Amino acid sequence: MIARQAELADLIGPLVAFRRDIHRHPELGFAEHRTSAKIAEALAALGLEVHTGIGGTGVVGVLRNGGSERKLALRADMDALPIEEQTGLAYASGAAGVFHGCGHDGHIAMLLGAAHHLARTRRFDGTASFIFQPAEEGLGGARAMIEAGLFELCPADEVYALHNWPDLPAGAFATRPGPIMAAADKFEIVLTGRGGHAALPHQTPDAILAASELVGQLNTIVSRRIAPTASAVLSVTQIHGGHSHNVLPPAVTIVGTVRTFDPPVQDRIEESLHAMAQGVGASFGVEAKVRYDRYYPATINHPQAASHALAAGKCACRHAALAPEPAFTSEDFAFMLQAKQGAYAWLGQGRDGETVPLHHPRYDFNDAVIPYGVAWHVAITEQRLSA
Asked: Catalytic residue at 136?
């Protein structure tokens, strides 16, 4: 049963309208100027202490009640994706090539709804901070906020975050202790020869052929260099090289991603990738340069905090359970969990019929789950800051 669901009824219509306005006006990471201004205005109207410009465009609303020194933080991300929307919705993106294809517009609405409800009911004792974070989509907005003094300005004993999850039924809730999202690494390998006429390949080290060989070898790293009991993914996602049918290009670039949960596995993959690139380069007579960027660590839930999140889920959602396994997608909330105890969770938003995945041009946040998200944020706050 959804706790105090009737109390939230008057909020849902305005929250849906707010969410759709944000959807109509999406902004990319660190450029969420309109979005952050709208959020700051809404928080100020609730009487919260508001801090803006944290880590660029980050916003935090602070709500205090009672005399307890306990402090809790809740986080929602704000940025959109560089994708052309194909939903055909009346409130579809008005910005060419930018849209909310990951549901951050819904996350904003749910956290604002919780701030509104907690501000009027005040059934907690302590300090609740509502963090609206920029640039989650690969740009490390969480790290930027932390480096800008987020937790000095707004101290927190624990921090929690919720993400919509199309693979779960609408209103279902899941989390797990330990790893819940993978570390995300990006690699770029440039193979450089000399270039030359395609009719005279014996005169030119062939960067295309070297790249073809290397792609095949890279796809053996997980199956042959990593223990079968470990979990990892390596995917080559881009190959660039050449401009004419009769010219061997001087260079070819290979780009891809690696996802892992354990640092030793991450180390082994990076070492193997460097070794393979150098080996193929030497055998084909081309130079191999590798750039390897570990841009997001794994998202690791603290066990006790995951239990608290699940308890709130059982109070607020249709169904709550432990997730049987982590996801190989990544999340920069990982930086906040490195700084503070806390947990990350999933809220089901699956619809009847076809499930549209995150980051798809036809994705749209399911407004029907807004009450569940608001209720969960309220429940975790009231339970962890019990009066």
From this structure: yes
